[in-house]
Amino acid sequence: MFTQTRATLRRAAQALTSPLPVDAYLAMIDPLWSSTSPKGRVVTVTPETARSATIVIHPGAGFGTYEAGQWVTVGVEIDGVRHRRCYSLTSDPEHSGGLISITVSAIPDGLVSNHLVYSTEPGEYLTLEPAAGDFHLPTDRTVPMLFITGGSGITPAMGMIRTLVGAGECHDVVLMHHAPTRAETIFADELADLARTTPGLTVNIAHTGAGAPPPELALTPERLDRECPDWRSRTTWACGPAPMLDDAEAAFDGAGRPDRLSIERFAPKVRPGGAETGEGGRVRFTGAGAGTETVLDGSTTLLEGAEAAGLTPAAGCRMGICHTCVVPLESGCVSDVRTGELIDEPGTHVQICVSAAAGDVEIAL
Amino acid sequence: MTATISRPEATRTSDSRPRPTPTRTPDVADPKPTPRAGGLTLEQSEAFGAAMDELREQIRADLGADDANYIRQVIATQRKLEVGGRLALFGWFLPPLWVAGAVSLGLAKILDNMEIGHNIIHGQYDWMNDDEINSRVWEWDHPSLAKHWKHSHNDEHHTWTNVIGRDRDIGYGTLRMSEDHPWKPVFLLNPVFATLLALNFDHGVALHEVHVEEIQRGRRSWAEVKPILKEIGQKSGRQALKDYVLFPALTGPGFLPVAGANLTANLIRNLWTFLIIFCGHFPDGVEQFPEDIIEGETRGDWYARQILGSANIDGGRLFHIMSGNLSHQIEHHAFPDIPARRYAEMAPRVRELCEEYGLDYNTGGLATQFGTVVRKIGALSLPEDRGPKAWYRRARNR
Fold it and tell me: A19 and chain B: CB distance < 8 Å anywhere?
């Protein structure tokens, strides 16, 4: 009833503010009131390690609800240009008083991550898109669970563990986390506290040292047998560096239980040799990018190519998830760098962040 | 479309000042079959194009937070003027509030249409990667749809600037604004048409997308334009509902005075935009071109044609903002997708290059520029082979 009245009121007000949405005027009073372009206001920025920080955000109208473990596309403005990236929500959706948090690790040369970790101040407005992703807690929280994480791959798992603990539903959960050193372990203190106070939670943190992890810390079935003997029967989530995820996949495939494992990657999984098989070609941008032409090899994505050519196409996750960058293919052929799949049907909406030229391409930005 | 272009050369409508005669380098084979805009040689055209491209790149690379903050600030000011104007009109019974409301709303509409709408729809701020401030989604407080404007203005007018028979902005399909447009008795009403167009400039612009003159010539059917007309009807209907029904009704007994104030605001906007836009391409000295000038046109030729087909208006910072920086029509036509606030800073270099290559850089005060536009509207209402043409020539060359 109330929502209906509100929708009617909104429609009536819209007739007065046409052609702009009512939200354009509401945002004059408080940017958080706009539901057409949801924003969030930074409440606190707390360092976690020397190069990571947790950012607590007050989301505005239109952000909506989310499940523990999902990710959000965050947009920050750097020198007048908005850049969007996806980050896992680390907050407990049920007990965070309407606030959300993300934990960001600054990666070398990472424009957005460095801005968020080192330059963001409370009060800054970020754009937020509604949370998304299938990497989240199941409805049945009584099943035994296993989280296999590495580095900042801990973030979605942390969101889920906090939620389980907060709801008193952490019945049988094992966390196998990997980080170079203790000082570089995000949430090290909180994880130690939780492990001590929560009977159903086992935390196992392996320090891999600098560089590639030592062979004995590779995620082999033998190591899983040693550290979590009933891993085959656990509902498992894995998030972290690609080699670790590939090992996890191999282990669960080998055990005949690929259905037990959910994986979240930070970078698109490139089909072996896939990037090199595409031949590349001349790319002509039409639409907003009209007049720009560039020659790309088969391993450079159309998004990277467009940006290198000075264009600013909309993009979010840059790994084929969020579909912010989707644009229609006008002509030619592109290959999906993850699968090698060729797309040549004009009008197909392609994700330019995971598509490379396979021959000459015309694409409308 | 006029198919009666008899002269092979660009029509020079004035400027009797001596100009350097560019010499063609004989050993360079020029592939362009028709004369270049401004009489440039291939070599000059290429050097000029490169210098203009360099200026464009230099400014494009410098775009940043200042430009983003500027456009947001203009948008915020426009919305305050609009809300303030609408609120003031609730005091319609006090004459000063009625006047303040109408003027404030008129200024808001001018800002919305010119410095904000026109420029954002050109894609000048697309580099910001903003969800709202971009040419894909922006709509303006105007009966014309942004997508129609993108076609009839960004595409047709900016591509074919001042090419007779191709640039539909020459006379907007109603006026006779070129000697190459054959005279007919109906053009005796040229000044009347111009006045009516000025008063209804918003709807004139909206209906521009219908291409009425092509329907008259049988190149388009009414069935073809019906969906376009329907869309225009819907958008202008929503505009009229807001200005002439809903806001007046909210003031109760003030219905008529408030509707009158909103009409005044729309008229202020129409007259101002007509004034600025007609000063962009129709003052004396602005060139018009035959259709075949396009053949083999290089980047430098394109720049030269855009510059010779446009005219600037001198003024202060506020004047430039209120005209959406279309007072820098020359820079706008050369760099349509560079944020308009940068034109003032680009102008000295453009002018310097024009001098170097002997291209006429047409600029003058608002009264001077508009005076010659009015004179042209009047003079072209009469046929050329009568006395007044001679009078017009004399007046022009004085």
Answer: yes
Residue B272, SS3 per DSSP: helix
Q: Using one digit for the tens of pLDDT, what is the confidence trace for A54-83?
A: 999 999 988 999 999 999 989 999 999 988
Contacts of A84 in chain B (CB under 8 A): 129
Q: Which residues of A touch B69 (CB under 8 A)?
A: 80
Q: What is the pLDDT of residues B148-158, one digit of tens each?
A: 998 889 888 98
- pLDDT for residue B270 is more than 70: yes
Nearest alpha carbon to residue A151 among A223, A205, A75, A89: A205
- List, in sequence order, every residue forming a beta bridge with A358; answer none if it has no partner: A280
Count of positions (residues) in chain B: 398
Question: Average pLDDT in the A306-310 region?
Answer: 89
Residue A42 and residue A101: Cα distance in Å, rounded? 9
Asked if B131 reaches chain A (Cβ–Cβ under 8 Å), the answer is yes
Q: Give yes or no for B128 touching A (CB within 8 A).
A: yes
Work out the average pLDDT over A75-99: 93
Instruction: Choose the mutation target among A312, A324, A325, A326 for the interface with B, i.e. most B CBs under 10 Å.
Output: A312
Residues in chain A: 365
Nearest to B328 by CA among B180, B144, B114: B114
**Smallest CA–CA distance from B135 into chain A, residue:** A288
Q: What does pTM read for this prediction?
A: 0.85
Residue A215 exposed, middle or buried by CB count within 10 Å (0-12, 13-18, 19+): exposed
Q: Which of B160, B191, B183, B388 is nearest to B281 (CA)?
A: B160
- Per the model's pLDDT, the better-predicted residue between B214 and A227 turns out to be A227
ipTM of the complex: 0.84
The answer to whether the beta carbons of residues A177 and A191 sit under 8 Å apart is: yes
Out of A18, A19, A82, closest to residue B128 by CB: A82
User: Which of B131, B134, B236 should be substituted to probe chain A, the one whose Cβ sees the most A Cβ atoms within 10 Å?
Assistant: B131
Q: Are A16 and B235 inside 8 Å of each other by CB?
A: no
| Two structure tokens written together for A267 | 């970078």
Determine the Cα–Cα distance for residues A69 and A89; give it in Å rounded to an integer.
6
Q: Tell me: the pLDDT tens digits for B69-82? A: 999 999 999 999 99
- For chain B, say whether A312 makes contact (Cβ under 8 Å): yes
Share in percent of chain B as helix, strand, coil (round to 5): 65, 0, 35
- CB-count exposure of residue B109 (10 Å: 0-12, 13-18, 19+): buried
